[in-house]
Amino acid sequence: MKPAPFAYEAPTTVSEAVDCLASHGEEAKVLAGGQSLVPVLALRLARYEALVDLNRVGELDYVRREGSTMVIGAMTRQATIERDPTLRAAIPVLREATRLIGHPQIRNRGTLGGSVAHGDPAAEYPAVALATDATITVIGPAGPRIIEAADLYDGPMSTTLAEDEILTAVAFPVWCPGSGFAVREMARREGDFATVGVIAGVTLADDRISRAALALFGVGATPMRFRQLEGELLGADFLAVDPTDFGETLAQRLDPPNDVHASTAYRTRVAARLVAEALDAALDTARQETTS
Ligand SMILES: Cc1cc2nc3c(=O)[nH]c(=O)nc-3n(C[C@H](O)[C@H](O)[C@H](O)COP(=O)(O)OP(=O)(O)OC[C@H]3O[C@@H](n4cnc5c(N)ncnc54)[C@H](O)[C@@H]3O)c2cc1C
C-alpha cells in the first residue's frame, strides 16, 4: 500500500517548522527519521494533510555538554548516539540502550526526538529518559517549555506535547562518579521491540546506595518508574542487597499486558528475572567505578 496524498513542507529552521505546523493545525504531523511514521502512513493506519519534514533543520542535530547534562538535539540520529565518544563516557546507558533499537539501518535514520515523541511503551529511549531524570525541551507558537520525562507520557504512544509543539532536545543529567547503569531486555528476535525491558541505575558512596533508579518498559501503557522501591534501596550496603529478592518484590507490583507477544504471567516472570540481572549489573559497574 501507499500513503494517502499529503502536502510536504521542508523548513530549514525551527521557527519555520513551528510556523508550518501551526498553519496546518492538527492535520499536520512532524516527520523525523520516518521509521515509525512512514509505516503507519503506508499501511494507512493514519493520514495527515501535511508532513513537516525536520530533516533539513540542521540546528536540531547536535550533542553537547551543558554543565552537568548532555543535551542532544531532537534530529540526532540513533547511530550518532551509538558512536559518540563523549556520550559513551558521560551517559553509557544511552549507548547500551541504543544498540538494542531495531537494526543498524533503522538507527541510521531513526532519531532521538522521534523515538521520545512517538512514545512506544516498549521503546528504549523513553525508558532511558525516565530512568535518568531527563528533561525534554519542546517549542510551539507560544514559545519553548521544558517537560520532565516523568510528565511526558500519558498513555500508549501518547504524550503531553500539544499538536502544534515540536520536541527540540533532550537533556540527560550526567550521574556522578560511582554510578552504574544496566539495560536488560527480552525480545522475540534480535532487533524487535522489547517484550519486557529494564533499566537500573545506582550510585554508591562508601559502599552504600545513595541514588537508585528503576524503569521498566513493555510492561504497561507507558514506561514506568518504581520510586517507592528505589527508596527502599537508599542507604543500603550494596553487599546486603539481594537482586533476586528485589526482582520478585518488584514483579508483584506489575500488571503487564496479556497480548499476542506474551501473557501477563510470562511478562511478570521475565520482569522479575531482568530486574535482578539489571540491578546486579548496575551495582557491579558502580562498585568498579568507585574502586577504579
Ligand atoms: C523494523 C523496526 C524495528 C524497530 N525496533 C525498535 C526497537 O527495538 N526499539 C525502539 O525504540 N524503536 C524501534 N523502532 C522504531 C525506531 O526507533 C524509530 O526510529 C522511532 O520510533 C521513531 O523515530 P523516527 O525518527 O524514525 O521518527 P518518525 O517515524 O519520523 O516519527 C515518529 C513519531 O514522532 C513524531 N515526531 C518525530 N520527531 C518529532 C519531534 N522532533 N517533535 C515532535 N514530534 C516528533 C512524528 O510526528 C511521529 O508521530 C523500530 C522500527 C522499525 C521499522
Describe the structure.
- This protein is α+β, with helices and mostly antiparallel strands and about 290 residues long.
- It has three domains: about 5-55, Uridine Diphospho-n-acetylenolpyruvylglucosamine Reductase, domain 2 (2-Layer Sandwich), CATH 3.30.43.10; about 60-175, Uridine Diphospho-n-acetylenolpyruvylglucosamine Reductase, domain 3 (2-Layer Sandwich), CATH 3.30.465; about 180-290, Enolase-like, domain 1, CATH 3.30.390.50.
- About 35% of the residues lie in helices and about 25% in strands.
- The protein has helices at about 15-25, 35-40, 80-85, 85-90, 90-100, 105-110, 110-120, 125-130, 225-235, 245-250, 265-290; strands spanning about 5-10, 30, 50-55, 65, 70-75, 135-140, 145-150, 155, 160, 165-175, 180-185, 195-205, 210-215, 225.
- The strands form four sheets. Strands 4-5-10-6-7 form a five-stranded antiparallel beta sheet.
- Helix 10 (about 245-250) runs antiparallel to helix 11.
- The longest helix has 28 residues, at about 265-290.
- It starts with 6 loop residues before the first strand and ends with a helix.
- The model has no long low-confidence stretch (mean pLDDT about 95).
- Flavin-adenine dinucleotide binds near residues 29, 32 and 54.
- Pfam families: CO_deh_flav_C, FAD_binding_5.
- Keywords: FAD, Flavoprotein, Oxidoreductase.
- GO terms for molecular function: FAD binding; oxidoreductase activity.
- InterPro entries: CO_DH_flav_C, CO_DH_flav_C_dom_sf, Diverse_Substr_Oxidored, FAD-bd_PCMH, FAD-bd_PCMH-like_sf, FAD-bd_PCMH_sub1, FAD-bd_PCMH_sub2, Mopterin_DH_FAD-bd.
- It comes from Pseudonocardia oroxyli.
